[in-house]
Amino acid sequence: MASIFTKIINGEIPCYKVAEDDQFIAFLDINPNAMGHTLCVPKTEVNKIFDLDEAVYMDLMEFSRKVAKALEKTVPCKRIGMSVIGLEVPHVHVHLIPLNEMKEMTFQHKISLDHDQMESLASKIQRNL
Length: 129
Ligand code: 5GP
Known about the structure:
Elements: H1 4-9, E1 17-20, E2 24-28, E3 38-42, H2 54-74, E4 79-83, E5 94-99, H3 115-127
Antiparallel strand pairs: 1-2, 2-3, 3-5, 4-5
Bound molecules: guanosine-5'-monophosphate.
């Protein structure tokens, strides 16, 4: 069965898209740890990050770096945190999280943004790519 992220990639489920190329997509996390929490996802569905082909892994890091730079320009923060978990969605994704406090990396502390805020944030990040 296709993962929820494959459904997003195929346009079957909406997302607040931040960046896309032929191999990867980045969109805002629906349940963010902090303002601008973004997921970078390979379009090819693979469960675990270290099972990616080496070239795809390296390209994912480069794609994530570009998105992180745009995030840092857009969202006031001390730095961009990066995490890979995958216990909820078994489709490789890199979490990029603009950080001001350690608790924002714990995945226990969540914030709530409405549709307009998410849409406007995604557009601002896109413009800073
Ligand atoms: P993990 O698999 O790394 O533990 O967590 C999966 C992440 O994907 C969570 O932060 C969760 O909020 C996010 N997520 C799950 N389903 C969706 C979805 O349908 N859309 C978006 N944008 N994010 C999702």
